[in-house]
Batch of 3 targets.
Target 1
Amino acid sequence: MNGDSANIPVIDISSPTVEVAKALVNASSTYGFVFVKNNDIGIPPQDISDMFELSKTFFQSPVEIKEECSINSAKSGKNRGWLSMHTETLDPSNQKKGDYKEAFNFGEFVNGKADQPLPGPLAAREDDIGQFIDKCHNLCIKILDLFAIGLEIPESAGGPSFFTTRHDRSKGPSGSVFRLLYYPTLPFLPTDPLDIRAGAHSDYGSITLLFQLPGQPGLEILTPSNTWASVPVDPSPSSNPNPSSIPILVNIGDLLSYWTAGLLKSTVHRVIFPYAEENKGAQDRYSIAYFCHPLDDATLVPVPGPVVEEHVKRAGEEMNGAPMTAREHLNARLEATYGAKVKFEGSG
Ligand SMILES: O=C(O)CCC(=O)C(=O)O
Ligand SMILES: [Fe+2]
């Protein structure tokens, strides 16, 4: 733990040129994390603030309300609903105790409606949540389009629409998840150094959008030199902090890494507690994530085109074994993180 700040690039994708696409590929092959400026790219800052307000209202609700839609109940469906403290263990080979966080997972909406029961405070805002998810998905589509351009995928293989056709929600189900996260402050920090807010992991999907709030740090990435570096909430704060100017954090997940034979990095990250000397005055941390996944049946083989081919030659990367589908990969990862704590009763 060294607290150094990660130097994650900030990219303006508002005009989608080849240069922007190249910059995005370069940043993602170095850091696996990149900020995109939030200037007219489809997610108004006010919507983000409203979603954080809703998240606070929900997590501060009585436990019985949250429990109604527990991830453990058959009616919520697989990987959906409320996760109480310690339900998920993102780094099962090191953690003795599950993550010190709560979360609420929304699966894909169907015809604008949640395909799972929602507790009262969230049900009251179902339409707003559905629209926010659509905006997140559309931003992911813009970014995936740029990746295909930057990777120079040939027209014969789908060209710029290689990834977007594989993320076309009208064509079938995917594992995409919209998630509200809540990391309460504790009066005393746990004494076991293995205890953590969110254990070290990489994300399971194609890309993740992550929203954070000023004054609520804690996210760290594992750098290529194997040290932890903190991810700022706002990489270029002005003298007058303004939530509407905070860029959106984009994180490469496992699947884009498979698709590019490791050229794009699915970087390991975690969320730590405040340092002891800061714990007393620290705020709770709220974050919001949109995990964008391809269609369940998408196969994970390296994409054609000179960029990935040259990387394979240079790095001597090889893809071994039979190609996996997106769903097979997701199921394997979910099993590892929830272990015996979540029984997806009667739900595929
Ligand atoms: O809360 C955060 O900032 C990160 C959460 C995260 O990495 C995850 O849920 O996959
Ligand atoms: Fe993550």
Target 2
Amino acid sequence: MSESTEFTFKQIAEHNTKKDLYLIVHDKVYDCTSFVDEHPGGEEVLLDVGGQDSTEAFEDVGHSDEAREILDGLLVGTVKRVPGDPEPQSKAAPASSSSSSSSSTAGFGVGLYAVILIGGAIAYGAYNYLQAQQQQQ
Ligand code: HEM
């Protein structure tokens, strides 16, 4: 079997046992049967997502390059979507993480400006208030 083999969600879902375990990561299909006993994160987590799209579960852990190399070796095909199938999970692949991290930095920058502006406005208001109080005395 090769990457050109296509599996529908229905076909993949049938491989959901410890003795026959397929996972989907980034729309590729991996046969994890031989790896399930060796997984450093335990067999339970793999069985939980057996036969399903586990892209988010896989990416959430922040797996190492070594883990991704193992994954490459388990590749058996790609997902063939038919109408009604779940959408691809959106977690970015590590290759695009530089752009997503820069956009999150930009988000932080905007947030920081907002904090400074609001903080400044409050300080200005407080200063005016105190001035007015002093003039009344
Ligand atoms: C076939 C797909 C997978 C492969 C090849 C794989 C491989 C690995 C490898 C090599 C590690 C050791 C740490 C590292 O190198 O990053 C690891 C750790 C881990 N994996 Fe996976 N993994 C897969 C899928 C999953 C999935 C779907 C989950 C779901 C939550 C998961 C959860 C974990 C956890 C929690 C650890 C950390 C274990 C620890 O540090 O105690 N893995 N995995």
Target 3
Amino acid sequence: MDAAPPRSSGSTTSDIPGELAEELAAERRYLASARDALRRMRERAEKMLDVGAGVGGDAYASERLGFTLTRRVAQLSDQSDVPLFFGRLELADAIDDGSTRYYVGRRHVTDEESHPLVLDWRAPVSRAFYRASPREPLGVAVRRRFGSSGGALTSLEDEHLDRGEETGAASRILTDEIERPRVGPMRDIVATIQPEQDELVRADLSVSLCVQGGPGTGKTAVGLHRAAYLFYTHRQRLERAGVLVVGPNRALIQYVSNVLPALGELDAEQISIDELPAVAVQGVDEPDVAALKHDARMASVLHRALWSLVVPAREPLTVPYGSARHTLGPAALDRVVEEVLESAPTYAAGRDRLRARVVARLQRQVESRHAEAPSETWFRSTSRSRPVTRFLDAVWPTVAPEQLLHRLLSDPAVLAAAAEGVLTDEEQRLLQSRVPARTYRRERWSSADAFLIDEVAGLVERPRGYSHIVADEAQDLSAMQCRALARRSVHGSLTVLGDLAQGTTPWAARSWHDTMTHLGRPDAALVPLTTGFRVPSVVMDLANRLVPELGLDVPLATSLRHDGSLRVCRVHDVVAAAVDECRSALAREGSIGLVAPDSLVDDVAAALAAAGLAWNHADDLAGEHPLTVVPATLAKGLEFDTVVALEPARVVAEERRGLNRLYVVLTRAVSDLVVLHRDPLPPALEEPAAAR
Ligand SMILES: Nc1ncnc2c1ncn2[C@@H]1O[C@H](COP(=O)(O)OP(=O)(O)OP(=O)(O)O)[C@@H](O)[C@H]1O
């Protein structure tokens, strides 16, 4: 089919032909009326909140009602910087009478008679806005997209799918959106979600996904929008058990944490992976030790160490009943222990079950010998009695997870018993190479220890679960971290996002199958994303030269962006040149990231201060300055209009996976990348020098 060029209003109103200008004016009036309607919806909700607060009833019910209404009011708040809708659908069968038009926006807006004025982007009808094409129009005759600025409509683009028109990636509105300067935290992409992204966003809750996508292909955006979509579609279930979004560090979480609230979703928990275990981290492991502690084999060692605490009974258990005594011998007690073990409880539940069953046996003894049922009081006091507790402490002792790990890391015999056949002698020595604190309470736990403690805690008691978990930058997760996530996944519904080429931890995945196995979803669909929305082609081409060196099987990302610039400059004084570059970038609009090898950050900071330039730290992206100084190890997931990247060879040299780190560093720029170096470049970046 020959595609006619779609009708478009251009990006400003002044150059719009008369007919389109009139249509734009009509759309603006519609937007104003939708805003009024939203205001009235909010006023009604506020009134209900006032009334709700005065309603009697029990405290819990009124608290729930207050909570629900407060959230409803918050969800109905209008964002003045974005229009209420960004699209319009005209359905094919209704085009003659013009009645079936749907505006697609960030949330439902209805008039007083409950007629829809704007449909939520997640509603089933809205799906066609993202997916319809001339080949598969999904009932759509005309799709209209709106461009906007500061909350006002500034342009529109029509595609007559019924006439074979399709703008696709050439849409001016899409291009404007991806090329806009980045200011402040990450924004939602609801207006321009692409069909292959939409397919992931709308995947059912029962489906777990593993998305392998190159830098800037929208993985983080897809994960967050999927969470928002699932909240909408399975509201009750997700609000009950919750949604967890996990990222690699606080800086990235802070950068993305506004997206869900801006979409009206206030209930997702967003944390960095290190915040998952409830353990204060104060210590640091040597890299070899950390890698070993993150190894999946540690799960077997810990499992064995914990369950080896359950031992055969040595003594009989005797309890009084009036003046009589009732006893269970070791063999009878061991039979009960066996029964409980067979029921595969958690460690803590097993102890409780053992207590209950042993006392039940004693109760039956009483019944048969005294021909009477002991009272409820006898049952309760016997359950808590010293002989029963002493028996449990000997046979199924309580243990704090920290205590168990401390024992393992400090007592060679304990470790040897638990690690036999699993860890080599050398590895066992490595695990005990740090001088332990005298008691477990004084131990300075490392981040890796925290996940070991979490593993034990998960064997002792099931942790709080979530209906859905989104794991970003998942290529960096260790086996033990994956397991920590898996045990919090109530139904196993996961969105796993990452890029093997950006793996920088010593335990980073080399294949998704391993990661998904540790996450408990070995069969999850692996979906590639390869269209980049952040990094301009010229920059992507440079970064892609590193990929063959990484020895990984990943598809290369291509960029939708053909703007932007790249300069690679050899300079005498990298720090001084960086200050100059930042100064001139500060004269332009947009954010600037000065990304330096970690060892150079102090020098850079001192030079910027001496030059009178102010900047944010990488973990404070909400800071007031356009310039942020980013150690290379914190660059992951972030983006800046201009990136000034220093000393690539040093970035490579400072870590085991330095090449992967450099790949991350080189793919942070939205528009311009300036690479400054004095040391020779890593060979992969040396030639061809055409881009210089
Ligand atoms: N469909 C889209 N429309 C507009 N912008 C988009 C779209 N998809 C992604 N983007 C933008 O592209 C940028 C990169 O997206 P995102 O950070 O989600 O990518 P990523 O794959 O997670 O990147 P990385 O691998 O570097 O972490 C963001 O600014 C995001 O808003």
